[in-house]
Amino acid sequence: MDKNKDLLENEQFLRIQKLNASDAGRRRSILVDNEDELYGLGSGSSSSGSEHEDEQPAKSTTTITTTTAATQNHIADDVAFIPGTTADNTETVTQVVETDDNVFKTHVQTLSSKEKSRYRKGSSDFISFFDDMAFENRPSILDGSVNDPFKTKFVGPTLEKEIRKREKELMAMRKDLHHGKPAPDADTPGLDASTTSITTTAPASVASPETVVTIETTILSSNFSGLYVAFWMAIAFGAVKALIDYYYQHNGSFKDSEILKFMTTNLSTVALIDLIMYLSTYFVVGIQYLCKWRVLNWSSTGWAFTSIYELLFVGFFMYLTENILKLHWLSKIFLFLHSLVLLMKMHSYAFYNGYLWGTKQELQFSKSALAKYKDSVNDPEVIDALEKSCEFCSFELNSQSLNDQKQKFPNNINVSNFFMFTMFPTLIYQIEYPRTKEIRWAYVLEKICAIFGTIFLMMIDAQILMHPVAMRALAVRNSEWTGIMDRLLKWAGLLVDIVPGFIVMYILDFYLIWDAILNCVAELTRFGDRYFYGDWWNCVSWADFSRIWNIPVHKFLLRHVYHSSMSSFKLNKSQATLMTFFLSSVVHELAMYVIFKRLRFYLFFFQMLQVPLVALTNTKYMKDRTVIGNVIFWLGICMGPSVMCTLYLTF
Q: pLDDT of 122-152, one tens digit each?
């Protein structure tokens, strides 16, 4: 009985017992089965009922519980198990015969902020921390839907052949009908399945009694591969014409191009700062090594050092480029955006391994306690909790490296592993990724040509359509104030002028980053999962757009902001969604500050405006009007960037 009491007074065991209880009262899951729930689109989107909560029966039989005077104050993102003691190390053991949900609330007070359920609702299946997403071998949408079919399956016009074949089938059917043979139905082989039936009545002389014949109306379909070629041909000729016109208008020189000057200024300085930024990311590898050597404990100090360093990392390089080096806005925004990419990679790497440190620590404790108390503790619930803990932790650790046991945690903590992760086109760290067998060098050359060709088109667009309007906007801002109405009228004129150029720039920028660059990097690193974006051009709501236009960032926000805010701060789904949008809006506003050197919060406002717009598009009136939804979406895409740019420039 003394050993039983000693174990029940151990806070680590109490935590394990709670985490591994399949019926642990009202429990919260940080995972979602349907990503629509992230934006309140699911049927159960309320703050209390949308979190996989189970109701335990009001009464239960003999239960041994422990109440603790104070709770843990560790708030370490993505760490499920943080051992420690309470503030005053006082615990009270109470024997009760009957209990209700209030006792379970007392249990919750003894746990750290990272407790979460490990079993699915009404099931004994594990909920892994990494169940929120998966990587697999798949091409990008443009490659899978356009480029690859065009290269491998394009045979020229096919519609005429299909029409001729269909005409012959109809003629044969009429002949059979004339000779009294039964007409084939829609299921007859050789007939197009996607047809519309038309019912006709045959003449009495053909058959008697009156014969009803069904003739199928073929729905014609074709591909538009030729128009794909024509589109790029038109872009190429248009760019060449613009280039020639600019050359002759500036006395046979491109030296006067402001955009060319922006692109070629301080290249060596930018490259050096970028290299220093990259090398600075290896700080998190050093922290993990110290945890591996047991110099640091992740749950107590490791996560704190990492979090502080991440803030200093972004702040220092922002200050360096703005106040010390005084770089041009284009150089600053490039370095700022790349620093954010490196920041997200550092965070994911550090807290992924931090979670596994907690899991490994729990496994060690559970095995030790089970070996010590298995024969002396008579309470089956105690043994069951320890066995479940061992089972879950072993599964969680072993499932991260299925193909290469040499990289099994913590062997994955090494410089080469982190180097490869930093090269992969993803922001989510894991030990293994799907890989392709070889590098297709012809594909790499194609994407390199696409990168430089797209940059060339963007420079022409910026020089001819956008830069002159931007200069006019700055002149308006620096002119004498003549009243709000006059300024608004001038702003409206600037807005109309810059919209066409911004639409072109937006689409080219998307293609450059998410298709050309990421696919090129993926091919060079043999990274198999090329799902970098969804078909965002078909979006009918801003909730869809937020999820699929930038898949790598969405995955990062889903795991390390949305889920982590639920587990660390005990937010419900609605609050976690607001938290995610808020953080994203702050970062976007910082980007505007880097470019325009002023905080106006225009972009912050428009970003947060997506939250009520999501609710609006989810109303009964808008839900089934997909065409209207897509029109409104494209109106926002076409007008939004132009509105924000001219606002920052003019006011």
A: 666 777 778 788 899 999 988 888 888 878 8
Say which residue the tokens 């003629």 belong to. Answer: 171
State whether residue 543 is helix, strand or coil. helix
CA–CA–CA angle 477, 480, 481 (5° rounding): 80
In a domain, 501, yes or no: no
Give per-residue pLDDT as tens, 228-252.
889 889 988 988 998 898 888 888 8
Residue 189, domain member (yes or no): yes
Please name the helix (run of DSSP H) or strand (run of DSSP E) that holds residue 196, with its range, or none.
strand 195-201
Cα separation, 216 vs 372, in Å, equals 78
Cβ pair 186, 214 in contact under 8 A: yes
Query: The whole model's pTM is what?
Result: 0.79
3-state secondary structure 357-401: HHHHHHHHHHHHHHHHHCCCCCCHHHHHHHHHHHHHHHHHHHCCC
- For tokens 């998410």, what's the residue? 514
The tally of domains found in the chain comes to 1
Q: Give the DSSP H or E segment for 215.
A: strand 212-218
Q: Which residue has tokens 């003691």?
A: 85
In a domain, 417, yes or no: no
Quote the CA–CA distance of 233 and 235 in Å, as a whole number.
Answer: 5
Residue 593 belongs to some domain of the structure: no
Just list the catalytic residues: 588
CA atoms within 13 A on the CB side of 127: 23
Contact 201, 210 (CB under 8 A): yes
Owning domain of residue 198 = 174-222
Whole-number pLDDT of residue 33:
43
Per-residue pLDDT tens digits for 12-63:
666 666 666 554 433 333 344 444 544 444 433 333 333 333 333 333 333 3
